[in-house]
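Observation: inputs received (chain + guanosine-5'-monophosphate).
Thought: call the complex predictor directly.
Action: predict_structure
Action Input:
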Amino acid sequence: MGVVKKEKIYEGKAKILYATENPEYLIQYFKDDATAFDATKRGTIQGKGICNNRISAQLFQLLEEKGISTHFIKSLSEREMLVKKVEIIPVEVTIRNIVAGGMSKLLDLEEGIILDAPVLEYHYKNDKLHDPLVNEYHILALKIASLEELDAIKKISFMINQILKDFFAKKNLELVDFKLEFGRYKNKLVLADEISPDTCRLWDKETKQKLDKDRFRRDLGNVEAAYQEVLKRVLS
Ligand code: 5GP
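Observation:
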């Protein structure tokens, strides 16, 4: 039976969530809108929503096959996927394999330094505070997540890093860093949000060409082509 799209329940910077006839499921719709630097920079990346929907679907399926629980249920259309309705834990989990972006700025390190071991960071999801870097003690003190949840988030995030690093390596892409969001569904932790060039830094293994949202953030040009290229390699 087809899924019935009902009222819009949330609109974010890059995605919209719609209710469905099933109270446990939502439709996640991917837009072409792009923002950066706390939404001070805004634009449109033609076809981005289609690429991100398909890339995310592929990566969620890969993770599910490897035993990671995600909110993904199935693809519905070019820009839509059916997902479990989760209670989002307001923490962004960042994993870094190579220095770039925020870590380069925070510690005055050159972009491109390969880290001996991956670095995990938490940022409190709060627009007013500009998603500040926090540690586990802050998260526990603010009751954002429990110690059990944090232990699971860490373990799963490093597992995801290994799976995605290996996957992208086969596509001649380096997984520089990425951001994850988790949610609670029926008392279980599940991976939510998306995994795409909006939320990952991906560099071509040989040329080191950036194939992600940094092309938009830094006005590097060929933004659309970069998203298309990642989709092509992910599906190859
Ligand atoms: P950084 O902290 O270096 O800016 O970001 C690290 C990684 O997480 C990058 O791959 C970046 O795309 C992703 N990331 C961090 N915060 C956000 C965010 O608020 N939105 C999106 N789309 N990605 C983010």
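Thought: report the result.
Final Answer: The chain has two domains: 5-84, 88-222. Residues 147-170 form the longest helix (24 residues).
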